[in-house]
Specification:
The protein is of the alpha/beta class and 922 residues long. 24% of the residues lie in helices and 27% in strands. It has 19 helices and 52 strands. Strands 1-2-3-14-16-18-19-20 form an eight-stranded parallel barrel, surrounded by six helices. A six-stranded antiparallel sheet has the order 21-31-32-38-34-35, with helices on one face. Strand 34 (684-688) and strand 35 form a beta hairpin. The relative contact order is 0.09.
Length: 922
């Protein structure tokens, strides 16, 4: 890095921190002000797909300005597959990846982002995983190929397998089979012949020959842009990674000149089947102290008691090679270029949670919040390694097909990411669309669409502000989770087999579906950790296990069989200090690996007995995981106790020197009413509304021995923030009772469809799809009428709101991928309300109600409600896109998602609409 750039970059890191997050508020007053107007760095971002790429400077600037208007703070450029053929008559071209014109477009984007105050990240390649035309077969992703041949008992002749470019025969074994399975005791290694025929010493020596070949997966880059096609690189090969950085990374970063991206991005590790590299045998011998070659059959079949240890050692070696030859190298390269390394650090090759040590910005994905999945994986890694900001790829496959997702879908999934500790949303996503493309424009095959082509874009600034406020709050202070869940990497590695080396999948299968659910539903926050992170950032202090400086009162071991001795010793120290250790299903029984000694096994057994089976044992064993929550509540009061217990309500807490911040969300499609007891003392609570930014005292409350109890009512998919501090507001919240009879205004609306000019009088509210003239209409419609407001409705202390009724829970088959909100609202699907010509606010999620007190006057008032639906109704009335010629020209690079689900959905105001008055805060 040039000296000046290095100096400026270091100054930037000192000012904003390694994650780009400035120092937060230092007292409750500052926090309140920042909550109302959160800082720009907490805004959501978008993955910006450049199809082709077929971008122009005019189109780039137009879409960047639209993003900013919608409350979006930045983007990640990801060049992907083309969606149209070159057409000289329309001056339309797909710019080849890394061409001069493409690089100029990147340079322009970087400069414009800086001008507009937007964050720009850059995928360091096209599509995913990393690879392309510069990667030769000798640098392509590696795999262990295994073939077995049945031997003719009358012959000694066995032909060798054909070897392709990039392959090498590394071992041959003979064996006998019984019942279709290899008999371990009969395995014998055979010296490879010099020719292409193996001659057995005598006929009948074996009935099966096993061949092990250092091979290549042959995987090609997924969804590449024009000119980016090619093999996926070998992430275990340092030379391959360096070559990629030289041929792809260097040109990309050079094009941006003095404006490097905020971060370079690496998508999830999806190098399917990659479990080998040509020098693995040599590296294995150096690291593990023995030769893997004689034991290769253990990777494909059970060879007896040694199998688990050998597989463990092989899996651990793969992880180490990934970390040293890819992750560490990428992080170091990014630093040299004055940028940060953002990565979805999971998948294949088998990254562990501690592999995120090499991530400047860990990122997750996925809405599943009660199992081992990537979002909590990433946030836990951030908590371990002191990264205050954790991003997630959000809204992948949301309410598929594209253009079907609604604002309530967006919120419902976002809340699930927030509950997992995510505090930076990367929307999936924003499809670049050239001028002249037929409405509703281009879309990515596996995603929602969150751009101006969506009619409900009219409420995007309000939706984005909600997401920004919550993201901001979840960056304050530090995480406050009671439970540290141990991830048994050793058990996962020991169950790896050739072609199956996905760490998260192995851990999820081992941990199971009940443990995390029991922890969360019993009122505790949870983070993950593993052996290496415990070694790096773990220490015991009194009755807590400190991981990355965050204290955990409870450690849960989920059905652990194998545990390194160093981990067990530290957990013994934790228990001696008063920490709570709970094992489910079983207790650890052995240290991992093939070469563990008798002494190590004996010490593990002695510590486990002392912890769980001796008369002075302080550890706890829960044989049935369904009882885990009950046991935890006897050992430690819940952070948030709900009465009755409701599985669909989740929470997460952040702690600062001056406040306790609870984000609470109803993840279900029905209203929930509970008594919520927060484990807080000496502080007073306030309700902070992340949609409006309003703050009021949380009353009435009850002080109990367990903490502060509040009555909590949550509409379907509603979320609330409770902030405890010593400086609580003294206003009394609204009791919520209606004062007098509501005024029904459901009839007599003048409706203008803004997109086509059609006007109608709706005496009764109904869906647009019921009228042949608007059946396939997607866009906005303005509902207008005069409403008389009695003077006594506006008396002091009274709050008046416009209410659109309740949503209706719905059921249906679970989506094949992604998620949706299972509720149909009375507003389909978003509305902006104007009172006497002034914008009063918007309605797009439960409760479908808006306070309009300050906008009303006694007597006649002009109401205007601009309602927007979804673009899928327009699509339902048109032929589906025809990609036949595109596929013939470029090959099939994607499959459009769920085209059979494109159908009409209700649109507009469905009623009833009422004016309701109730006493307000005092």
């Amino acid at each position: 890095m040039p000296p000046l750039r290095c100096f400026l970059f270091c100054c930037l890191l000192l000012f904003v921190g390694a994650d780009g997050f400035c120092a937060g508020p230092s007292n409750i007053g500052e926090l309140r002000r920042a909550f109302r107007e959160p800082p720009p760095e907490a805004r959501i971002m978008m993955r910006w797909w450049w199809f082709g790429p077929s971008v122009t400077k005019e189109g780039i600037e137009r879409e960047m300005r639209l993003m900013k208007e919608g409350g979006i703070g930045g983007f990640e450029v990801q060049p992907v597959y083309p969606l149209a053929l070159d057409d000289p008559t329309k001056n339309f071209r797909n710019l080849p990846f890394l061409s001069g014109e493409f690089l100029e477009a990147l340079r322009f984007t970087s400069e414009k982002a800086r001008e507009l105050g937007m964050r720009m990240d850059l995928t360091l390649g096209s599509g995913w995983p990393y690879g392309g035309p510069s990667i030769s077969i000798t640098q392509a992703a590696g795999k262990l190929r295994f073939e077995q041949t049945k031997v003719d008992p009358r012959s000694r002749r066995v032909p060798l397998p054909n070897l392709a470019n990039g392959e090498q025969l590394i071992a041959i074994f003979g064996a006998w089979k019984r019942g279709g399975e290899i008999v371990p005791d009969t395995l014998r290694e055979i010296e490879p012949p010099k020719g292409d025929i193996l001659w057995l010493s005598e006929s009948g020596s074996f009935d099966t020959i096993l061949f092990f070949i250092s091979s290549r997966t042959g995987m090609m880059v997924k969804r590449p842009s024009v000119g980016a096609e090619g093999f996926v690189l070998n992430h275990y090969d340092r030379d391959a990674v360096n070559h990629y950085l030289k041929t792809v990374g260097e040109p990309l970063l050079k094009a941006l000149g003095p404006n490097p991206p905020y971060a370079i991005f690496c998508d999830s590790l999806e190098v399917f089947g990659s479990d080998w590299t040509p020098d693995l045998l040599e590296e294995f011998r150096k690291r593990r102290g023995y030769d893997l070659k004689p034991y290769l059959p253990a990777l494909v079949t059970n060879i007896g008691p040694a199998t688990a240890g050998i597989r463990h050692d092989w899996g651990k070696t793969l992880t180490e090679l990934l970390e040293e030859r890819f992750l560490a190298l990428m992080q170091r390269w990014a630093k040299e270029k004055g940028t940060l390394f953002r990565i979805q650090g999971y998948g294949i090759p088998p990254a562990t949670i501690s592999s995120n040590f090499y991530a400047d910005l860990p990122e997750g994905e996925g809405h599943h919040w009660k199992v081992v999945r990537a979002s909590r994986w990433a946030s836990s890694a951030s908590h371990l390694y002191g990264r205050p900001v954790t991003s997630s790829e959000t809204w992948t496959w949301l309410h598929s097909p594209s253009f079907r997702a609604t604002p309530i879908d967006v919120k419902a999934e976002a809340d699930l990411h927030f509950l997992q500790g995510i505090n930076q949303l990367i929307g999936h996503g924003w499809p670049y669309t050239p001028e002249g493309v037929e409405y509703p424009g281009w879309r990515f095959y596996a995603a929602g669409v969150f751009n101006h082509q969506n009619p409900w874009w009219i409420v995007m600034p309000d939706l984005a502000r909600y997401l920004q406020r919550v993201s901001f709050l979840l960056r304050q202070g530090r995480p406050a989770n009671d439970v540290a869940l141990y991830l048994p990497n050793s058990d996962a590695w020991s169950h790896f087999t050739a072609g199956r080396v996905h760490m998260i999948e192995a851990l999820r299968e081992h941990v199971g579906p009940k443990v995390i659910a029991q922890i969360l539903e019993s009122g505790y926050g949870v983070d993950f950790f593993d052996d290496r992170s415990l070694e790096q950032v773990g220490r015991v202090e009194k009755d807590c296990l400190l991981l990355g400086g965050n204290p955990y009162r409870v450690v849960v071991l989920p059905g652990v069989e194998l545990m390194p001795l160093s981990t067990l010793r530290k957990l013994e120290q934790f228990v001696r200090g008063g920490g709570i250790l709970v094992a489910t299903r079983r207790t650890p029984s052995a240290p991992p690996g093939f070469t563990t000694t008798r002494e190590e096994k004996a010490e593990v057994a002695a510590i486990v007995e002392h912890l769980f089976a001796s008369p002075e044992a302080r550890g706890h064993v829960v044989p049935q995981e369904e009882s885990l929550g009950e046991v935890l509540q006897k050992l430690l009061p819940p952070d948030l106790r709900l009465e009755p217990r409701v599985a669909g309500i989740g929470f997460i807490r952040r702690t600062t020197d001056f406040a306790q911040i609870y984000f609470v969300a109803n993840t279900s499609n029905i209203r929930q009413r509970v008594k919520a007891t927060f484990r807080v003392s000496g502080l007073m609570p306030e309700w902070w509304d992340p949609i409006t930014g309003s703050i009021e005292a949380a009353l009435p409350l009850t002080q109990t021995a367990s903490g502060v109890a509040l009555d909590l009512e949550l509409e379907p998919y509603e979320s609330k923030v409770v902030v405890f501090s010593k400086d609580s507001r003294r206003t009394t919240p609204s009791p919520g009772r209606e004062d007098g009879s509501p005024i029904d205004i459901s009839t007599g609306w003048d409706v203008t469809f803004d997109g086509n000019g059609h006007k109608t009088r709706m005496e009764e509210l109904k869906s647009w799809t019921e009228d042949i003239r608007t059946r396939y209409y997607s866009g906005t419609a303005s509902y207008e009428k005069e409403v008389n407001i009695p003077a006594d409705l506006l008396k002091p202390g009274q709050r008046v709101r416009i209410d659109f009724g309740e949503g209706k829970p719905v059921t249906g088959p679970e989506p094949k991928a992604g998620m949706r909100a299972w509720v149909d609202g009375p507003v389909r699907d978003a509305a902006v309300i104007y009172v006497n010509g002034v914008r009063a606010g918007s309605v797009w999620c439960p409760p479908y109600s808006l306070d309009i007190t300050g906008h009303l006057k006694p007597g006649s008032n002009r109401l205007k409600i601009v309602v927007a639906n979804v673009a899928v109704n327009h699509m339902a009335g048109r032929p589906l896109p025809d990609y036949r010629l595109l596929n013939l020209r470029y090959g099939v690079r994607f499959q459009p998602q769920d085209m059979d689900q494109i159908r009409l959905v209700p649109a507009g105001l469905l009623g009833p609409v009422r004016i309701i008055a109730a006493p307000g805060p005092r």
